[in-house]
Each structure stands twice: as structure tokens, then as C-alpha cells.
Amino acid sequence: MVNPERERSSSSPSVEIEQVVRRKGGRPGEEIKVVLADASSFFVAMRVWEEAPFYDGDEVDERRWESILARSRLVQTRARAMSLLARSEHSRFLLRRKLVQRELDATDVDRVLDELEESGSLSDERFAIGWVRTRLRSHPEGRAHLVGGLRNRGIDAALAERAINTVLDEHATTMADSARACAQRLTRRRNLSVDELRDRLHRRGFVTPIARRIAEEIGEAGDDAGDGYDRHE
Question: By the 8 A CB rule, do 14 and 60 touch?
């Protein structure tokens, strides 16, 4: 008896499956390797294969095969994106760049990133706040440098400013406090004059009034007077 599926496929363009190999590892997400009769090979997401499986020797309608490959690319792109996000927060810009560098289709990448943003798995705001929080703790610097660092990571200026203010608010701290922490690090192993310290603080992105005030404060050997600056200056 003639297999109706094969009879239909013979009347339209089709691909012939030579071998289906189940595999794990090597790439994010479980998948199978499919070798065609022409010796070309493809990776198909296991989830996509399970929806409508095919086996050694089957012929698959060309349109169905293209759909299988398209859906597999999306599954694999999402798996790679989630793998990167599991390691650390990313901005959309940074995550897109990494995925495209891995030779994933840019259109697929954009579609996956849209979905991840909609689900909350990817958030520029969350990335920006986390980055500022870590930066101020490990490498204190001024607002100008913080904004510049975020802009280089694909964060727009308005969001960068909001992220900085959010972190300052949550720690009840000021840019003058950050400048003071930076000055203490700079003078920990080396004596600097007030002018030298002021210039270094300015190069770290602190505005001139704050750089001058903190340099003078440190130079006065322990003067603990308030900084007098607004939190968001």
C-alpha cells in the first residue's frame, strides 16, 4: 500500500531525510542532527521535532522543512539568549551583539529579544541599575563617566540618569559621597596634593565643584563637615 504522506510529497518539492541523530550538549538546548540525502546537515530543536517527528528515509515537504528550520532557529536563539542571561544581566544592545557575533540570524535575534523584553527576562532598566550599583561599589566615579559607560552599553541618556538617581536614592548617598570614596582609594597608597587630587577626581567624571570640595576635605586631614551638595547634583 502506498504511503499517502509519501505520495503527496512526491508531487511537490521535498527533502529526503537520510539520518536523524539525537544529541545533547555542544549548543544550548536539546536538539537533533538531521542529515539529508544530499549529505547536507542541520540541527533541529528537539521541541520542534517532537511536535511533528520524522525519521530516517522520510520525505518532508519543502515548505514544512523550511518551517521546521525557521522554528528551530528561534528555539535555538532563545536558548542561547537565556544561557547568556543566566550568567549575568545584559542590556538589549549587549545581548544582541553577542548573539549576532555567534552568527545567529539578526531577524531571529530581534524577534527573540522582543519576546524576552515582553516577558521581563530582559530589561535595560534592570541592567542599568545593577551596573551602576556595582560600578559605584567597585570603581567609584562621577555622573559623567557613569552615563558614558551606560551609553556605551546601549542605554539611552534619560534611562542612564534615572538609573544613577535610583541607586543613589536606595543607598541614601550622594555623588559627593562617591567622590569621597574615590579620593580615599586614590590617596590610600600615594600622597597627593589638593590640586592633584582635584584633577584626578575631575578625570574620573566628577563635576568641578564636588572634585574641589572633596579634595580640600581630604587635604584637611579628616575634616568631616557635610558636603552640602544635593543628592542628584
Answer: yes
Residue closest to 211 by CA, chosen among 180, 190, 184: 180
Which residues, listed in sequence order, are joined to residue 211 by a DSSP beta bridge? Answer: none
Q: Which three cell numbers stand for residue 189?
A: 597608597
In angstroms, the Cα distances linking 131 to 125, 192, 215 are 10, 29, 26
Quote the distance between the C-alpha of residue 179 and its chain's center: 28
CB 170 within 8 A of CB 138: no
Alpha carbon distance 12, 194 (integer Å):
82
Domain coordinates of the chain in residue numbers?
Answer: 4-119, 124-219
Question: pLDDT by residue (tens digit) across 21-66?
Answer: 876 555 556 888 999 999 999 999 988 998 889 999 999 999 999 9
Among the four given CATH numbers 3.40.50.300, 3.40.1170.60, 1.10.340.30, 1.10.10.10, the one describing domain 4-119: 1.10.10.10
Residues 6+ apart with CB under 8 A from 228: 213
pTM over 0.85: no
Output the DSSP codes for 61-116. Answer: EHHHHHHHHHHHHHHHHHHHHHHHHHHS---HHHHHHHHHHTT--HHHHHHHHHHH
